[in-house]
Amino acid sequence: MELRDYIRVIRRRWGIIVASLLVVVAVAALVTFRATPQYESHARLFVSTSDQSAAEAFQGGTFAIQRVSSYADLVNGQELSSRVIAGLGLRMSPADLSQKISATVVPDTVILDIAATDPDPARAQRIGQATATELTKFVSELETSKGRKNAPIKATVVDAADLPTSPVSPQPVRNLGLAVVLGLLLGVGLAVVRELLDTSVKGPEDLAELTDTPVLGGILFDPQAPKQPLLTDLSPQSPRAEAFRILRTNLQFVDVDHDRKVIVITSSVPGEGKTSTASNTALALQTAGQRTLLIDSDMRRPQLAKLFSLEGSVGLTSILLGRIDLDEAVQVHRDSGLSVLTSGPLPPNPAELLQSQGMKQLLERARLEYDAVIMDAPPLLPVTDAALIAAHVDGAVVVVRQGRTTREQLSTSLSRLQAVGARPLGVTLNMVASRGRKGYGYGYGYGYGYEYVNETVSYSCARR
What we know:
The protein has helices at 3-12, 14-34, 54-74, 78-88, 94-98, 121-143, 172-197, 204-210, 239-252, 274-287, 304-307, 316-320, 326-329, 350-354, 357-369, 385-390, 407-419; strands at residues 39-49, 101-105, 111-118, 153-159, 215-220, 261-267, 292-296, 331-332, 339-341, 372-376, 395-401, 424-432, 448-453, 456-461. It is an alpha/beta fold and 464 residues long. The protein has an eight-stranded mixed sheet with strand order 5-12-11-6-10-7-9-8, sandwiched between helices. A four-stranded antiparallel sheet has the order 2-3-1-4. The longest helix is centred in the middle third of the chain and has 26 residues, at 172-197. It is rod-shaped, with a radius of gyration of 40 Å.
């Protein structure tokens, strides 16, 4: 990935980065402020030999340097810890005390730095001083050979243990600073992983990589859409109303050689908002002065009768079965004057009716009587209905739900249209987030069972 790719990922997934940062900082803050403060006292020992001549002093210094590392190891031994416990009357085991003390050799010197840590600064000082004192005695005992009174090497306390005034841990500034860095790195890492695993269509740039089909518009996500699904429910100045006016304008420039257009609006899978898009596109055309007919050609899960509060018992199915004429079946939406042809009774063979001669004749007549005909069709992947309809009209508009429709689903849908000779007129992005990307959803669904496994699409159709 290039730098610009990382910048794009950060812009898209900033929510993950911020969430990771907040979690890591919160955990670090919790651990830091709940930790018991620890104070550290230091004492320093000087290791020397008793030799006097220059040559002996040099050899003795080298010998002392070699020995001082061994003395550092004695500090954490059981024997020295037991002596300190006995001397101070501490109520702890030698193993526990050895965890509180440590020794460090100053490089290239014979100086040994002893550190004692404890929640009580005064006790830390006492432990440090007692450890230094007992170590000098212990070294003298170890280095004094039998038959001699004095040891050739000795350890002397040169700096008594100090009384610490501030804790050495926890360190809030350091811990929170590291947490911020770690949180940012973790967040960016998770964002990159999520981006690589996410195959959904995120914007126009993804569409441009998948197809040459133009993007006709983008409908912003509106949390009030389930309660106000139609343009007639919205203020003319609302962003969603303006988005459909833009879509209407772009549709008028598609296939300019045909003044009277019959267009199918569909999607790849259920739940992408194709019924809402078809309905509001038809309303936008109607309010622009074009005599528009909206047809519910979804004979499996019809929605328009309920959406427009119309009678659903008579409609497209009734016309195709020869029971009623088009003029008698069309109903007018009172608030807009839009002509709506509902689906009618649900047939057992929707695909056969949609590709019948009666359907072709109906569309030819509708083209002559209306300036524009918008057809709400079923999704392309679960069933073949939409592709069959699109093959007999001017083309299809595919609705893509941002952040949910996968690239493979969209590619398969467009291929399905092209396989039957249908013309994809364009793609409309629906539920576009104004800032960032979130998971959205209308309370809107189909009775289609849909499963997408690897590169194989399996379909099942069931009515609820």
